[in-house]
Design brief:
Layout (H helix, E strand, L loop, with lengths): L25 H21 L6 H22 L9 H11 L8 H6 L4 E2 L7 E2 L4 H24 L1
Antiparallel strand pairs: 1-2
Helix pairs in contact: 1-2, 1-5, 2-3, 2-5
Amino acid sequence: MAESGKGAIPALAGFPAPNSEAIKGWQEFLKEGNQFLATANNAYIQRKEAFTTAVLYNLVAMAIEKLIMALLMKNGKLPYNHTMHDLVEAIDEFLPGELAGLGGELKAWDGFQDICDIESYSITPPTMGQIGGMLKLALEVQSRIMISVADC
Protein backbone atom coordinates (compact mmCIF):
# COMPACT_ATOMS: atom_id res chain seq x y z
CA MET A 1 0.00 0.00 0.00
CA ALA A 2 1.27 3.46 -0.85
CA GLU A 3 2.20 5.79 1.94
CA SER A 4 -0.03 8.73 2.56
CA GLY A 5 1.09 12.13 3.58
CA LYS A 6 3.21 14.93 2.29
CA GLY A 7 5.77 13.91 -0.33
CA ALA A 8 4.42 10.37 -0.81
CA ILE A 9 3.82 9.11 -4.33
CA PRO A 10 0.26 7.78 -4.55
CA ALA A 11 -0.39 4.41 -6.16
CA LEU A 12 -2.29 4.34 -9.43
CA ALA A 13 -5.49 2.30 -9.39
CA GLY A 14 -4.54 -1.34 -9.89
CA PHE A 15 -0.80 -0.71 -9.84
CA PRO A 16 1.64 -0.80 -6.95
CA ALA A 17 3.19 2.47 -5.86
CA PRO A 18 6.42 3.28 -7.72
CA ASN A 19 9.52 2.53 -5.72
CA SER A 20 13.24 2.44 -6.05
CA GLU A 21 13.92 -0.92 -4.46
CA ALA A 22 16.63 -2.93 -6.16
CA ILE A 23 15.39 -5.57 -8.57
CA LYS A 24 16.56 -9.06 -7.70
CA GLY A 25 19.43 -10.35 -9.84
CA TRP A 26 21.22 -7.07 -10.53
CA GLN A 27 24.48 -8.48 -9.15
CA GLU A 28 24.36 -11.32 -11.68
CA PHE A 29 23.91 -8.82 -14.52
CA LEU A 30 26.91 -6.87 -13.20
CA LYS A 31 29.05 -10.01 -12.99
CA GLU A 32 28.06 -11.14 -16.50
CA GLY A 33 28.67 -7.68 -17.96
CA ASN A 34 32.16 -7.62 -16.49
CA GLN A 35 32.81 -11.14 -17.81
CA PHE A 36 31.63 -10.29 -21.34
CA LEU A 37 33.83 -7.19 -21.37
CA ALA A 38 36.88 -9.05 -20.04
CA THR A 39 36.44 -11.74 -22.71
CA ALA A 40 36.11 -9.16 -25.49
CA ASN A 41 39.05 -7.11 -24.26
CA ASN A 42 41.33 -10.14 -23.90
CA ALA A 43 40.35 -11.52 -27.31
CA TYR A 44 40.94 -8.11 -28.91
CA ILE A 45 44.37 -7.71 -27.31
CA GLN A 46 45.42 -11.25 -28.24
CA ARG A 47 43.88 -10.94 -31.74
CA LYS A 48 42.48 -14.44 -31.54
CA GLU A 49 41.32 -15.49 -35.00
CA ALA A 50 38.02 -17.00 -33.81
CA PHE A 51 36.98 -13.61 -32.44
CA THR A 52 35.92 -11.80 -35.61
CA THR A 53 34.84 -8.19 -35.46
CA ALA A 54 31.21 -9.36 -35.52
CA VAL A 55 31.81 -11.60 -32.50
CA LEU A 56 33.73 -8.89 -30.65
CA TYR A 57 30.98 -6.35 -31.38
CA ASN A 58 28.37 -8.69 -29.92
CA LEU A 59 30.47 -9.38 -26.82
CA VAL A 60 31.03 -5.68 -26.18
CA ALA A 61 27.35 -4.89 -26.81
CA MET A 62 26.27 -7.66 -24.42
CA ALA A 63 28.69 -6.31 -21.82
CA ILE A 64 27.22 -2.81 -22.09
CA GLU A 65 23.66 -4.14 -22.00
CA LYS A 66 24.36 -6.22 -18.87
CA LEU A 67 26.24 -3.39 -17.11
CA ILE A 68 23.54 -0.81 -17.82
CA MET A 69 20.82 -3.26 -16.80
CA ALA A 70 22.67 -3.91 -13.53
CA LEU A 71 22.77 -0.21 -12.74
CA LEU A 72 19.11 0.29 -13.64
CA MET A 73 18.02 -2.79 -11.68
CA LYS A 74 20.11 -1.74 -8.65
CA ASN A 75 18.05 1.45 -8.70
CA GLY A 76 14.70 -0.32 -9.19
CA LYS A 77 14.29 0.71 -12.84
CA LEU A 78 13.97 -1.03 -16.20
CA PRO A 79 14.31 0.22 -19.78
CA TYR A 80 11.46 0.00 -22.29
CA ASN A 81 13.59 -2.18 -24.57
CA HIS A 82 17.21 -3.30 -24.96
CA THR A 83 18.60 -1.41 -27.95
CA MET A 84 21.46 0.94 -27.15
CA HIS A 85 19.06 3.84 -27.73
CA ASP A 86 16.63 2.43 -25.18
CA LEU A 87 19.31 1.65 -22.61
CA VAL A 88 20.88 5.12 -22.86
CA GLU A 89 17.47 6.81 -22.72
CA ALA A 90 16.54 4.81 -19.61
CA ILE A 91 19.75 5.91 -17.88
CA ASP A 92 19.16 9.51 -18.97
CA GLU A 93 15.57 9.37 -17.67
CA PHE A 94 16.11 7.57 -14.38
CA LEU A 95 19.75 8.37 -13.53
CA PRO A 96 20.61 11.60 -15.34
CA GLY A 97 24.30 12.30 -15.75
CA GLU A 98 25.52 8.71 -15.27
CA LEU A 99 26.53 8.42 -18.93
CA ALA A 100 27.10 12.12 -19.58
CA GLY A 101 29.04 12.57 -22.80
CA LEU A 102 28.84 8.87 -23.76
CA GLY A 103 25.23 8.42 -24.87
CA GLY A 104 25.63 9.55 -28.46
CA GLU A 105 28.50 7.16 -29.13
CA LEU A 106 26.63 4.26 -27.54
CA LYS A 107 23.48 4.97 -29.55
CA ALA A 108 25.54 4.87 -32.75
CA TRP A 109 26.25 1.18 -32.07
CA ASP A 110 22.66 0.37 -33.08
CA GLY A 111 23.72 1.12 -36.67
CA PHE A 112 25.85 -2.02 -36.83
CA GLN A 113 22.94 -4.38 -36.22
CA ASP A 114 19.35 -3.51 -36.99
CA ILE A 115 17.75 -6.89 -36.34
CA CYS A 116 14.34 -5.94 -34.95
CA ASP A 117 12.47 -6.47 -38.24
CA ILE A 118 13.02 -10.01 -39.50
CA GLU A 119 12.18 -9.01 -43.09
CA SER A 120 14.45 -5.99 -43.36
CA TYR A 121 17.28 -6.58 -40.92
CA SER A 122 20.81 -5.39 -41.64
CA ILE A 123 24.16 -6.28 -40.12
CA THR A 124 27.32 -4.31 -40.83
CA PRO A 125 30.35 -5.71 -39.00
CA PRO A 126 32.62 -3.00 -37.57
CA THR A 127 36.31 -2.76 -38.40
CA MET A 128 38.97 -3.83 -35.91
CA GLY A 129 39.74 -0.12 -35.41
CA GLN A 130 36.11 0.53 -34.51
CA ILE A 131 36.20 -2.38 -32.06
CA GLY A 132 39.16 -0.72 -30.31
CA GLY A 133 37.10 2.46 -29.90
CA MET A 134 34.11 0.48 -28.67
CA LEU A 135 36.23 -1.26 -26.06
CA LYS A 136 37.63 2.05 -24.86
CA LEU A 137 34.08 3.41 -24.53
CA ALA A 138 32.87 0.21 -22.86
CA LEU A 139 35.66 0.37 -20.29
CA GLU A 140 34.66 3.96 -19.46
CA VAL A 141 31.01 2.90 -19.07
CA GLN A 142 32.13 -0.01 -16.87
CA SER A 143 34.19 2.32 -14.68
CA ARG A 144 31.29 4.71 -14.17
CA ILE A 145 28.85 1.92 -13.44
CA MET A 146 31.16 0.21 -10.96
CA ILE A 147 31.51 3.49 -9.07
CA SER A 148 27.73 4.07 -9.18
CA VAL A 149 26.74 0.64 -7.89
CA ALA A 150 29.30 0.96 -5.10
CA ASP A 151 27.79 4.30 -4.08
CA CYS A 152 24.17 3.06 -4.03
